[in-house]
Amino acid sequence: MATFDRDRHPHQVQVHTMHPGRFDHTGGDRSHLTQNGPSKSKVLAVMALLPVGGALLGLAGITLAGTMIGLAVATPVFIIFSPILVPAILTIALAVAGFLTSGTFGLTGLSSLSFLVNSLRQVTGTVPEQVDSAKRRLQDLVEYTGQKTKDVGQTIQDRAHDIGTEGQGHAGGQVHVGGAKEGRAKA
């Protein structure tokens, strides 16, 4: 069965040989170029980076050793003071959670109010236009009230002036009722 599949699906094989004297893509002959070792720039780079890499590796080892010693010293201290540290850590964690929750609720409330104001602006028109309209109506009302007050004051002043000029010619007082004058007789 394997031979049956091979016969039905022939495969092509390509063979590429390497010739040392072939021309490269630039058209020159590479056979005379032989690399005996790394270039000068690579050697200088290795020589410059070797001490830096070694120093950093040494510092990493010292830091690891110091961390392990600190952990070995601090572990018993943490175990001894755990009845104090655990409640303190829980208290601080709950306080931080409370502040974060409060801030979240505040931001949520402000964004909700902002959304509500924007929705009202879209539904009823802009708020500044309504405020300007209300200001204009209030100014008109104040002007109307002021004019009416002036008119009423002028009317009262005119009537008082009329009463004063008419009342000075008589010895007795006069009373106006409904536009009719009534006089008192001298006693």
Automatic annotation (TrEMBL):
Keyword field contains ATP-binding: no
Transmembrane segments: 43-71, 77-100
Keyword ATP-binding among UniProt keywords: no
Membrane topology summary: Multi-pass membrane protein
Biased amino acid composition, Basic and acidic residues: 1-10, 21-32
Short name of any one Pfam family annotated for the protein: Oleosin
GO terms for cellular component: membrane; monolayer-surrounded lipid storage body
Composition skew (Gly residues), residue ranges: 166-176
Keywords: Lipid droplet, Membrane, Transmembrane, Transmembrane helix
Subcellular compartments: Lipid droplet; Membrane
InterPro entries hit by this protein: Oleosin (IPR000136)
PROSITE patterns attached to this UniProt entry: OLEOSINS (PS00811)
GO process annotations (BP): lipid storage; response to freezing; seed oilbody biogenesis
Positions of region (Disordered): 1-37, 163-187
Function: May have a structural role to stabilize the lipid body during desiccation of the seed by preventing coalescence of the oil. Probably interacts with both lipid and phospholipid moieties of lipid bodies. May also provide recognition signals for specific lipase anchorage in lipolysis during seedling growth.
Family statement drawn from the similarity comment of this UniProt entry: Belongs to the oleosin family.
The protein's name in its UniProt record: Oleosin
Species in which this protein is naturally found: Deinandra increscens subsp. villosa
